[in-house]
Structures are given as C-alpha cells and as structure tokens.
User: Which sequence fits this backbone?
C-alpha cells in the first residue's frame, strides 16, 4: 500500500533548499568579450579565452558584477567588500579549461531573504525564505549526444559540442534550508522561484526564460519523521525548468521519499532528474562519495572588491519591489485579483502600465493587450509587443475614447497595424476607416433611408420608437459601418420629431 | 657590425643604414644553420615571417618613418609564448603542430616595435625543469661546453644568445627559468616584477608565479627589450596599471655611490660551489669599489621557499594543464570511433605529457585534495606571505638584495635527470623572488676557477622598482668588463662553424 501526498505529509515534514541558476543578460561573456546571444550558429561566439586555449586569460565582466550586486541588494543581502573566484576542477568535454571559474568560499553576496506568499487553505500565508549566498560563475558549453536512445553520454555514438554558452555569466542563488512549510512545501518552492523571477525581471539582469534555460532551479528536499527533530538525507533534483515543474518535482519527491522510508529503505544522497511527462524524478549521479573539486583561489583574477560608494549608488537604482508594485497598480487601476493575476502571468504588466502612462484607460489597455493582441500573438508564437507597439495601442484607445473609432473599427485598425500597413493613422486613411461623424453626410443617408422606407418612418413619427431600428440599420449599411450608431439614432429621431 | 655585437650596437648600425634588417636576420639564420645542430636552441624557425617583418622595417626606414629603438633587431622567442600561425609546443608532444590563432601580448608588442622574431626556442616541457632536458624534442646544449646543460626551463633562449644565434630573447620565469639559464650561459636575464609584463598568451605553468622577461647579452640590451614588452595589459587581470620604471635610463647611469646593497645570508654556504661563492665575493668587492654600502641581511623564511614552491607551482599546474585533453587542439590518441571521450583523454595525457610534468600534476592534484588542502596548499601560501615579509624587512634597510643566481655552474647533461630533488635545488636562490612577486636579474660575474664556466650574480629589487636592479647591474657589468678587458662570452670556446 503506497502513500499518496496527503498521507505522506501527515507522517513526514519536508525541508526544502533551493538553488537557482540565472544566466545574466550581459552583452558579453563573464571573462571575455564574446557575444551572448541565444540561438546563434554553434561555436560562432567563441574566442581563445572561452575556448580555454593555451595562454588565454580571463578578465571579469564589470557589468556581471554590477548585476550580481543588484541581485544581492534586491534580496536584502550584505555585499562582501572582498570576494574571490576559485577554480572548481573536474574533467568534462563541454568545459574548455576542465575547471569552472566560480566563486566558492568567498561569494559576493550573503545572508539575505525573500518573502513569498501562497494561497493556503485559510487564506494568504506568508513565508520568509532566507538566502544563504549569491555567487557568480561561468556557464559550461553544451553537449549534444547523438545516437543511443537516451540522449545521454552513455550509449551515444558521438557527441557534438557547442561552446557558445561556455563562459556566459551565471549567478547562483542559494537558500538556507527552508523549514516548517509542512504540506505547503511544493507551493512555497514554486512561489519562491516565481517571486525570484519577478525580482530578476524587474532588475533587468536576466531574460529569466525557464524554457530556454536562462533560469534553472535545483530543488533539494529531505523528509524527517514528524516529531523526530532530525533532518533527513536530501535529494537534489536538477535543472527543473518551469514553475509548475518546481511544484511537481517537490510533490513527487515527498511521495517518493516517504514511500521509501515507509518500507524501511534509506534515502540515497544523489542528484535526480525531473521527468516532465510523469512528474517523477529518476536518479542521476550519486553524491555518496563526495566529488573532490580541488577548489583553490583563481590565480588569474584579482579579488572582487566593490567600492562601498558604488554599492550605495546601485542601491539607489533599485526598482520598486515587484510585489509592492503589483499591489499599488491593482489599487490604482481597481483590477480584480483574478485579472491582475492574468496580467502578471501573461507578463504584460509592464506593457499595460506603459500604455496607461500614455493616457489610456487601464481597463481598455488591459483588455486590448490581453484580448485581441495576445490572441494573435499566441497564434503566431511571438510576444504581443512584437506585433504592435504600446504607442499604437494607446493611440487606438484614444481614438475610441474620442469617438473617432468604434470598437469594431478599432479592431480593424489593430489588425492593419499588425499586418504591417503602418501606424494606426496610416491604416485609417488607407482603409478609409474613420467614423462618419459629419452630420450633413449622415443626414443625407438618413433622408435616403426615410425615402426608401416611408411606412417605417411614419410609424416612428407616430411614436413607435423601436421601429427606428430598421432605419438605423439602413443608414449603417449605407455608410459601410463607419457611422456611430448612437449618433445616427440621435439624428434620426430628432429628424422625425421624436 | 658583427653578430657578436650587442643589440644596442645592431640597432645603431640599422639606424645608420650600415646594414639592413633583412641582412641582419639572414646573418643570424646563417649562424643558426652553422651551430644549431650542436646547440639545439631552436625548435622552429619562422624564416618567412621574420624576413617579411625585416623587409617591412627596412621599407619604413627607407621611407624615413620614425621607428622604435630596436626596430629590425632579431629575437628568439621561448616556445611558451603564442605567436599567431607559428607552432607553439611548450616543449611538449601534447602541442606538437598546434598553431595558435592569436598573438600573445608580448608578441604583439615585439611586432609593433619592429623586432624580428627568428623562431621559437627550446625549453623544458611546459617550463618545468632547470636543464632543458625535459623537452620532448631533445635537450639544448650549453655553448660553453656542449656536454653540459644550458639551464632551464628557458635553456634555448639563453643558449641562443651565448651561441650568437640571436642578440635578444624572451624567456619566462616561474622559479628561475630566465635567471638560472642566464647564469650558466654567461648571459643576462631579467624576471620583472610580477604583473610588469602581460601574461596574456604565455601558456601557464603556475599563474601566480609565471612572468615573462627579457634575455640579452648586456644589461642595457635587456633594459631596451624590457621597455618594449612591459606595461599594463587589460587582457591580463594581474598586470599592474602603473607606469613602467625607466629601466633604460637606470641601465645607462652606472652610478651606485651610496646605495645600500644587502647580501642575503641564507643564499650562501652549504650546497654552493666554491668557485661560485668566490666569483660572487669578487663582484661584491667591485660594488664596494663603486661606492656601495654592503649590508648582510637575514631572511629566515627563505629556508622554506623551495618546499612551498613545490606545492604552489604543481597545484596551479595541475589545474592549468587540465585543458590539454585532446578535445579542441593538440595531440589526440586513441580516437578510433569506439573509445569514449574519457578514455581518449586518458590515453592522450598518458602519451602527451613527459615524466616531470606528470610528476608535478600528480603532486599538485594531491596537494589540492580535500583533507590535504590546508596542510599543503594552505600552508605553502602562508610561507609565501612570510617570504614577502622577509623581503619587506630587508628592503627597509637596503635598496637591492644580492646573491649568487644558482648554487653551481652548468652541470653535465644527464647528471641530475634521475634525481628530481637535486635538480630542484638548482633554483634555491631564484625561487624566493617569484614567491614574493618582486624583480630579479642575473648577470655574469666571472668564471668559476674549478671548471672555467660562467657564474651568475643575482640582483633583487622591490616590486615595481625594477629600475634599481638595472642600475646596479649596469654599474657592475661596466666594472667587470673593464676588469676582464672583454665580454665574458669572448672567453667561451668557439663553436664549430661559428662566425
């Protein structure tokens, strides 16, 4: 009889630890001037330094230091006045020097925290996640194992190596152990990664695209028998690459470990890989015999000693905290919780805010971006802002507000802009989409309609107001839908003495 | 004008158009063709590149362009520095045939000064050794006595100077690899202050100790070359961003009246050859005659320098040499489509590295291992701090420090190759300088009476005060020259076929 999640959590208390790797969005690599653009032809963004050629030497990217300090400050860390890089020595073909230059015992930021909220059974519950360290390191190259069934190195016929990623700056953010989350452990893990992602995005230090690997999370989890007061052996689930997977991986590990413990088996300290399809993890490398990385201070680099004045200057540039900003905007725009969440999930908060800043009504701005534009964007697999600019949407909304466009016409204008026909004004003039608001032009159409339907006109004159619908319809048809129906109605009724 | 002239004289002859750079390069290639089969200083001759560089200089000079002082003077480059498109082996099978896609900063500076790089010189594999016997391509022979070693690791560079195959050379010095070869070949070699010359493109042995520097037949020539290659390089994070001291002016000054010169008590006595000690003392007497004040200083922690060095250097080398894995460049063994990457790496490293390199990789791997780190690497770093303090205290009292460069003159090829510890002891007087990151120079101070072989005199100056060793070296050299009546290399037996 195996335990399900609820049964597992009744007997065992989970302890979390989260390690997040973030690729910084610096233009150049951590230790050389090579470009960092994602998706370039293999091995085109390399040089003697990131290929580890004999004689080449690293030089620290100052922007990467700046980004790391910003991350530390945003996570309430103290910034070390003196930190160092070390060499982590191990052999692997995708690591050009066969050592990774990484901070080790002297990281740049230490002792911070991040508060996260989750939806608990009895309302919103807050958890403080303590941050142990934020440190800098370089990414490795990428191996592609060809042949064999698993895509792993064992059993592969040959491997292809792409060193474009080698040397891209990474920041690793490590939490202290997160105790006392109880059954909410998976939700807390997810909420933490989500909050961290929002902070990183607000700092504009990373693309934070989990699906592209620019943000990767290792979920460490152990169980202890409730009341035992003893921490269990942990597993490390590596490179979980979506928020949902973070939650699922933690849930899966609680169930797996609880069932092992129930049957008297021990938990092996090992790395595990998350399987998207099943939501379970499979074993990777055992860490029972701790690998000896022979760390020692990197002699090719001088210590990182950021000036206190510089740190204070950077502190002043910190943006508003995402959680606080969200609350502020929600109040200002009076948006319901659910729609606020939709906007955040769609990553359109900035876009809507910019649109509102250009004078648009928040509700309209939200509905345009999340509605029509997002729909087309999803169909085409692009970002909404790649289809149409904030300025154009703001202009369309302004034209609706002033009555120069109807909602229906506005949709055609947006469609035209997306189709590349130019600015909203271009589309309006090219397609002739302007609302007919010229009274004399409308009066001509109204008179024509009355002439064509004298009986209906007579009924309206006699007080049958609903009968006016047929005449209004005729006018709208005659103007190609470009008239403002309300205006037509007003003029028609007045003309017929109503 | 003769190939036996010094670089300074060659530069003058070039300037006065008494000889062209092409002719000068060709004369050196002729000398190399005559003597290098016996000396084996060179691993590779880049005749085409050198002559095209020489032609370029001649053209510019003919056009009346302002050229740098050493433009057109030939130079031998230690095979540990990358030069674009020219094979760079580091004396190892591991890199046989590898042509680097980039120039080291030193080479960039040499090229822009119009210096003509004749070729690459032999060395102990990856600069590990004191005799050049560890080269995978056979030993270099000392021009003073072909049965003897030319020192190491830069034996090729120093031997090329002593054999008049080149008037200038570049060496690198991790524990004495410029100075000890200079000592045993009767030439001048300078290890600048750590960070004074860029390490970019110097294939690393021990990053925190490695330093490139000038090799020449006179102190002034060394200073002229020093001036060309020194200076801040944004590509080397450990390079010093400060003005290079005026070493050329210092070398020319020849006035050391009132200078305080410290004799290091610990760098003498047991293990030092009698003739070496005698020549050293005679040179000290010359300094006194020149008006210097001699002070005896004690540096008690130098006793531990050798032991600490043989933990730090191998530790760093075990990591630096990890990149030689056959994946991206160099030798590859066993790639038969069946063996995996790890096996190919193992086979390549087994076949590609020589015994001394393997010995140091193993030593360093062990010293860095968890559980041993504190006892070995950690303690060695502490010793390093203590050695620095010894120097600091000594430099409070003295302007420069002096000692013999090496405890003995050149020993016989094969004599110490099976006794690594005896070999390591050769660097006992040069290592403290690297450990402290300060400057050190070796210049000849005579021939030992037992074997008639050259003895090296070491001058050590505080960090970024490299001009001081040139000042003392220039003055001592002039005094010794007038005492001997001719340059020391004129006492060497003539090589068969030599000009």
Assistant:
């Amino acid at each position: 009889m195996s335990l399900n999640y609820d049964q597992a959590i009744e007997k065992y208390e989970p302890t979390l630890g989260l390690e997040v790797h973030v690729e910084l969005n610096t233009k150049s690599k951590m230790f050389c001037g090579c470009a960092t653009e994602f998706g370039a032809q293999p091995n085109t963004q390399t040089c003697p330094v990131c290929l580890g050629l004999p004689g080449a030497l690293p030089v620290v990217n100052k922007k990467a230091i700046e980004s790391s300090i910003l991350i530390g400050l945003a996570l309430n860390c103290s910034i070390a006045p003196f930190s160092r890089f070390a060499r982590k020595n191990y052999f692997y073909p995708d690591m050009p020097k066969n050592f990774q230059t990484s901070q080790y015992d002297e990281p740049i930021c230490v002792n911070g925290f991040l508060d996260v909220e989750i939806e608990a059974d009895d309302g919103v519950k807050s958890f403080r996640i303590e941050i142990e360290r934020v440190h800098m390191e370089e990414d490795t190259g990428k191996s592609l194992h060809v042949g064999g069934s698993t895509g792993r190195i064992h059993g592969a016929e040959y491997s292809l190596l792409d060193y474009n990623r080698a040397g891209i700056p990474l920041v690793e953010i490590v939490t202290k152990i997160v105790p006392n989350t109880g059954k909410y452990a998976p939700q807390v893990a997810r909420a933490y990664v989500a909050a961290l992602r929002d902070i990183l995005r607000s700092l504009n230090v990373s693309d934070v695209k989990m699906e592209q690997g620019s943000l990767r999370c290792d979920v460490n989890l152990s169980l202890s028998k409730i009341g035992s007061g003893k921490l269990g052996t942990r597993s490390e689930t590596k490179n979980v690459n979506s928020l949902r997977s973070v939650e699922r991986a933690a849930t899966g590990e609680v169930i797996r470990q609880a069932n092992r413990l129930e049957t008297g088996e021990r938990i092996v300290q090992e790395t595990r890989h998350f399987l998207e399809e099943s939501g379970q993890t499979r074993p990777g490398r055992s860490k029972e015999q701790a690998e000896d990385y022979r760390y020692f201070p990197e002699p090719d680099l001088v210590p990182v000693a950021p000036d206190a004045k510089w740190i204070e200057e950077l502190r002043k540039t910190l943006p508003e905290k995402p959680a606080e900003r969200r609350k502020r905007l929600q109040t200002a725009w009076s948006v319901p919780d659910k729609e606020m969440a939709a906007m955040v999930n769609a990553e359109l908060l900035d876009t809507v805010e910019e649109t509102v800043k250009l004078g648009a009504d928040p509700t309209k701005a939200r509905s345009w971006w999340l509605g029509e534009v997002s729909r087309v964007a999803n169909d085409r697999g692009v970002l909404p802002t790649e289809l149409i600019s904030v300025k154009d949407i703001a202009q369309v909304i302004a034209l609706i507000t002033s009555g120069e466009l109807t909602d229906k016409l506005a949709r055609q204008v947006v469609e035209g802009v997306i189709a590349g026909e130019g600015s909203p004004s271009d589309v309006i003039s090219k397609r002739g989409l302007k609302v007919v608001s010229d009274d004399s032009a409308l009066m001509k159409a109204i008179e024509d309609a009355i002439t064509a339907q004298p009986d209906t006109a007579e009924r309206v004159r006699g007080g049958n107001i609903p009968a006016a619908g047929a005449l209004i319809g005729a006018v709208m048809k005659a103007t190609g839908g470009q008239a403002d129906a309300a205006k037509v109605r007003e003029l028609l009724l007045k003309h017929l003495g109503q | 004008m003769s190939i036996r002239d010094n670089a300074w004289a060659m530069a003058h002859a070039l300037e006065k158009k008494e000889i062209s750079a092409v002719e000068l390069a060709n004369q050196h290639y002729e000398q190399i063709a005559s003597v290098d089969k016996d000396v084996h200083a060179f691993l590779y001759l880049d005749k085409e590149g050198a002559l095209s560089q020489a032609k370029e200089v001649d053209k510019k000079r003919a056009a009346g362009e302002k050229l740098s002082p050493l433009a057109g003077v030939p130079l031998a480059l230690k095979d540990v520095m990358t030069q674009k498109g020219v094979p760079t082996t580091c004396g190892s099978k591991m890199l046989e045939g590898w042509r680097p896609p980039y120039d080291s900063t030193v080479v960039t500076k040499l090229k822009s000064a119009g210096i003509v790089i004749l070729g690459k010189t032999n060395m102990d594999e990856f600069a590990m050794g004191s005799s050049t016997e560890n080269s995978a391509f056979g030993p270099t022979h000392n021009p003073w006595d072909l049965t003897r070693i030319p020192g190491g690791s830069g034996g090729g560079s120093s031997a090329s100077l002593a054999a008049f195959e080149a008037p200038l050379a570049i060496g690198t010095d991790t524990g004495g690899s410029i100075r000890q070869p200079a000592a045993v070949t009767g030439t001048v070699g300078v290890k600048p202050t750590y960070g004074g010359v860029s390490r970019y493109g110097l294939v690393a042995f021990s990053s925190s100790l490695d330093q490139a520097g000038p090799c020449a037949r006179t102190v002034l020539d060394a200073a002229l070359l020093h001036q060309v290659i020194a200076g801040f390089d944004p590509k080397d994070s450990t390079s010093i961003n400060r003005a290079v001291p005026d070493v050329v002016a210092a070398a020319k000054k020849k006035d050391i009246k009132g200078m305080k010169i410290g004799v290091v008590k610990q760098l003498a006595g047991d293990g030092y050859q009698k003739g070496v000690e005698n020549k050293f003392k005679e040179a000290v007497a010359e300094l006194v005659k020149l008006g210097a004040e001699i002070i005896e200083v004690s540096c008690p922690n130098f006793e531990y320098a050798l032991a600490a060095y043989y933990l730090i250097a191998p530790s760093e080398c075990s990591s630096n040499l990890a990149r030689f894995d056959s994946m991206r460049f160099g030798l590859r063994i066993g790639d038969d489509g069946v063996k995996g990457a790890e096996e190919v790496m193992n086979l390549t490293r087994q076949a590609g590295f020589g015994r001394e390199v393997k010995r140091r990789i193993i030593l360093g791997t062990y010293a860095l291992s968890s559980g041993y780190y504190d006892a070995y690497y950690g303690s060695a770093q502490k010793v390093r701090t203590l050695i620095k303090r010894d120097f600091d205290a000594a430099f409070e009292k003295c302007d420069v420090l002096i000692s013999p460069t090496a405890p003995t003159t050149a020993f016989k090829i094969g004599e110490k190759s099976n006794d690594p510890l005896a070999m390591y002891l050769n660097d006992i007087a040069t290592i403290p300088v690297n450990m402290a990151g300060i400057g050190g120079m070796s210049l000849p101070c005579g021939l030992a009476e037992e074997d008639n072989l050259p003895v090296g005199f070491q001058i050590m100056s505080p960090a970024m005060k490299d001009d001081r060793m040139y000042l003392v070296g220039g003055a001592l050299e002039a005094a010794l020259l007038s005492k001997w009546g001719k340059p020391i290399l004129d006492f060497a037996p003539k090589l068969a076929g030599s000009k």
Summary: The mean pLDDT of chain B is 97. Chain B has 16 helices and eleven strands. The radius of gyration of chain B is 21 Å. The first strand of chain B starts at residue 42 and ends at 45.
